[in-house]
Each structure stands twice: as C-alpha cells, then as structure tokens.
C-alpha cells in the first residue's frame, strides 16, 4: 500500500517524490487521527489524508509503461488520483489499480534479480470470466503464450493470476506451479474453485497444452489446493 502511494505522489507537477521522504510525510499527517476499532486503519487514514492534501490535481492521469518482464508483453496503463479512493473506501478494485501494484512490485523488488525466475504475473485484463465465456480457446492460448514467454519453466516458479469472477467484481488469486502441476487458489470468500468451473477448465487446459508444446511428461494430474 505504501509503495503504491509513493508511485501516486509522482503525479505532482512540481516534481517527483523521493521515496526516502515518504515515511516522514506519513508521520507528519498522523496527528489528530484517531484509531477506532471497526473503522479505517490509522495507516489508511494517513495515506488518504496525504493524497487528498497533495498538489496532485483531481482528474490528472499518468500513463505507466509496462515492459515485457511484467506480464510477458509490453503495454501501457492509465492510472489517476481518483483510483486511490478504490482502496481508501474499500470499493471494487479496478484492473488499473491491481496492474499498477504489480508493476511497482516488479520494478522495485524483482527486475534484475533472481526473483524474476521464481515469480511471474499474468495480466488480469486478458484473462477473466467475461473473456472465457466469449472465447475460451483464445484465453487458453493467452495463458500458454504467457508461459512460453518466461523461459523453460523447469525450475519451481509461480504464475500469479488475479482473476475477476464477473460476479459483482469479486477477485480471486490463482497461483500456478507448472513444474509441479500444482495450482493454489486464494479467495477471501468461502468455497473453492468449483464456483468457477470454466476458469479451472481453462487454466488446466493451458497448463497441459504448454507442457505438450515443451514435450514435458505429465506423470500426474493437476492438483488444486485452496490456500
């Protein structure tokens, strides 16, 4: 959350914010902010106040350039100050917010390190319930292309897919380990992947097609685990 905010401050027309000063400015905005059980956390309230009182103009947007290391294909994302309210008000999160969080984690923690061999991300804008319903084969091939873009995948690594269920905008997270034929399912609500059978079918088919293209043996079935 803090990392995303330091990105947001860079919208300022008077110059970029140094990351080292972020903690000091959060502390400066902490005065007179109560901590009450059942309400927003104190850190969330500090961040909201800092963004609101910054010189970032409402309606200002920024184009964030994603290199191919993030999602396997280069593209741009538009993010605005108002998008932060999705976090502050616990509203439905848009794809731009989720993608920008992933981009910032990649740039600050992963790029140029061995973490790029262990963790990969799949664009939520390309794989979701709506697209699967319209053209499951195309979505399957999108996943296969993402797997192929990341190398041989012979060492254990995880592909993270933020998946929009299409049911009121609920998000789940699917983490795929191609070498071990394991898929980890994370959902803040009760139940498991059986709620989204088309998603599971598409993910399974993509993994098997990728392994076939790579001439890997499938010595066991794909195992799904709820985390």
From TrEMBL:
PROSITE patterns: ULP_PROTEASE (PS50600). The keyword Hydrolase applies. It comes from the Eukaryota. GO terms for biological process: proteolysis. Transmembrane segments: none annotated. InterPro entries: Papain-like_cys_pep_sf (IPR038765), Peptidase_C48_C (IPR003653). One of its GO terms (molecular function) is cysteine-type peptidase activity. Residues 77-216 form the Ubiquitin-like protease family profile domain. Keywords: Hydrolase, Protease. Signal peptide: none annotated. Belongs to the peptidase C48 family. This is Ubiquitin-like protease family profile domain-containing protein. It comes from Pisum sativum. The lineage of its organism: Eukaryota, Viridiplantae, Streptophyta, Embryophyta, Tracheophyta.
